[in-house]
Predict the structure.
Amino acid sequence: MSSLAETVVALGYGVASALVPIVNAEAYAVVAGQRGGGHALVAVVVALALGQTVGKLLLFESARRGSGRLAQKVAERAKSGRAAARAARWTEPIRRWLSRRRTALPTVLASAAVGVPPLAVVSLAAGTAGLRRWEFAVACLSGRVIRFALLVLPAVLA
């Protein structure tokens, strides 16, 4: 496969893996690293990270635009106390970190690079917390590039 075709496939795979949890971008990066390719591998890593960022921006925007309706549904479900308490226990700390300027970007960057907290959750919470779109995108892209580059590095060095 040509390097341009492989880059386009990596971009599409990145978007798919950002939206469908069973599609694993990390596995794709490791397999691409095993095949090698120098400059083509760099393009695949960047395309995969860019695709993931585009997918997470879709989640971010959907949460931003639907936060009013989401809050209404959560309020309706709050009547069943146990489910609401469980959801609040997981989402409230992330939302609190993302609402402060000095902790928002490090949280997104750590989530994108390490995976803790999960980037899908952080994407949704960042959309409702009012984080700027471009800041989220830059932190997400940077973290994903770091993550995928570290995954292919052992194969490149071998």
About this structure: The helical segments are 3-19, 25-35, 39-77, 81-99, 101-114, 119-129, 133-157. The longest helix spans residues 39-77.
